[in-house]
Amino acid sequence: MADSSSKVLTLFSPYKMGKFNLSHRVVLAPLTRCRALNQVPQPALVEYYSQRSTPGGFLITEGTWPSNTSVGFPHVPGIYTAEQVEEWKKVVDAVHAKGAIIFCQLWHVGRSSHGVYQPGGGSPVSSTNNPISERSKILLPDGSHDTYAQPRALETHEIPQIVEQYRCAALNAIRAGFDGIEIHAAHGYLIDQFLKDGINDRTDEYGGSLANRCKFLIQIVQAVVEAIGTERVAVRISPAINHTDATDSNPIGLGLAVIERLNKLQLNVGSKLAYLHVMPRFSGQGLVEDEAQFMRTLRNAYEGTFMAAGGFTRELGMEAVCSGDVDLVSFGRSFISNPDLVLRFKLNAPLNKYIRETFYTHDPVVGYTDYPFLNEQSV
Ligand SMILES: Cc1cc2nc3c(=O)[nH]c(=O)nc-3n(C[C@H](O)[C@H](O)[C@H](O)COP(=O)(O)O)c2cc1C
């Protein structure tokens, strides 16, 4: 919530996020980088996350698979095997050694998948039997693109198994030393496939009304909260983002419906989630008034820490924090190309430009850990 003190808030004002004391509000957004070969975190990830850690800083990992059927991208880490947990420990230890706090983002792609990513080449699961339209293409491990697979709608009785996968993954995250987890319920992936009425065509208790469409997400949140504690759980939503046909007839109504249920859950358990993370931008044209209003409406409805992402510059981030529109801002592309983004923002120093071509390549160094720090540039 907005700080009631008269001091002007900036990206560098400390923030108490439940049990976590953040020294600033510049958050590393979840960023898929495809460097975890065969779904196992590598030494390169230790270096990458360590580079972006600051004392009291807050980091969210790239989307991470809670199970072997969640997969839809090459070389993304999982957190469902003992080996993955062991290797994540090294990443978390390096981040903690720098005094930063780190949550693991749990990501099930649902129908945004392909036979090459599914065990035995099977059909990915979703809320629906309808595939993503052929306009959108999926990235395959060999770098080529193809149409998305034909999904299979989960049977009602199968849904608790998916909820259980999230619960186990959250427990694994805590075993690996993570401070908490973020549930990826945005961007047209599995949970969003249940939330959005442009996709969810179910006739069971998980389809139709807003209450029914929110049920899957809320059951996951509930299960994870019971497993690891409310303060260690966060949720990311993007009600207005249409990525991979994830449309809704009433994005603001959907956002408010999710928030109403999260507020209620918080009230019932008597403690707050770590934060709600919202992607309010949908035009890609800068923060037009509609988007600002959209963000404010959700922010005012949510009773807890509010984080936003999407096209924020230093200035826009400062403004959003100062006006009380957000508590925290997560930065994606600018954090990819500026390992010392926090320092650069503090000094108002120029930023390195990001190289889109290496976002999803697999080299452990190039386009990953080789973006220069400020002091390297001045020598
Ligand atoms: C290369 C890349 C990978 C991303 N991977 C994820 C992801 O794994 N999970 C997620 O929720 N969002 C992901 N996003 C979205 C970012 O978290 C962020 O919201 C987005 O980049 C907008 O912020 P920006 O304008 O500061 O880049 C990704 C974005 C980029 C550019």
UniProtKB/TrEMBL annotation:
Region (Disordered): 117-144
Pfam families, per database record: Oxidored_FMN (PF00724)
Composition bias type Polar residues, residue spans: 124-133
Cofactor(s) required, per the database record: FMN
Gene3D superfamilies noted in UniProt: Aldolase class I
Cellular-component GO terms for this entry: peroxisome
Keywords: Flavoprotein, FMN, NADP, Oxidoreductase
GO molecular function: 12-oxophytodienoate reductase activity; FMN binding
Top-rank taxon: Eukaryota
GO biological process, one term: jasmonic acid biosynthetic process
NADH:flavin oxidoreductase/NADH oxidase N-terminal domain boundaries: 11-351
PANTHER family per the UniProt record, alphabetical: 12-OXOPHYTODIENOATE REDUCTASE 3, NADH OXIDOREDUCTASE-RELATED
Family: Belongs to the NADH:flavin oxidoreductase/NADH oxidase family.
Name of the protein: NADH:flavin oxidoreductase/NADH oxidase N-terminal domain-containing protein
